[in-house]
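Recall that a protein's primary structure is simply its ordered list of amino acids. Everything else, from secondary elements to tertiary packing, is in principle encoded there. The following example makes that idea concrete.
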Amino acid sequence: MEIWINPACSKCRSALSLLDAEGADYTVRRYLDEVPSAEEIRAVLDRLGLEPWDITRTQEAAAKELGLKDWPREAGERDRWVQALAEHPKLIQRPIITADDGSAVVGRSEEAVREAMSRSRS
């Protein structure tokens, strides 16, 4: 299991606390320091079963500067959204947990974190 976090995020810290309390085996990726490539973002989106606009933090200053709220949310614009996330990783919703079974979740709730853990147990 891998968890993409921003250490300043309370939801990320809560997810890490739960993973630790449950003795989960995971690696941490501080995605603001180790920025995911466009290809990695596409792969995570596939695992999540979501579109890039579904994991975009549209209230961030960068989102407002880019005018993201006015960008079309359609298949033809997917690459543009992915590129924006790769260039401005702070826009990526967090935490994202990739489970060992090939799936992923946005771990903003205890239930989502537990779901990722259950998918990563052998």
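Helices lie at 10-21, 38-48, 61-66, 78-87, 110-120. The mean pLDDT is 96.
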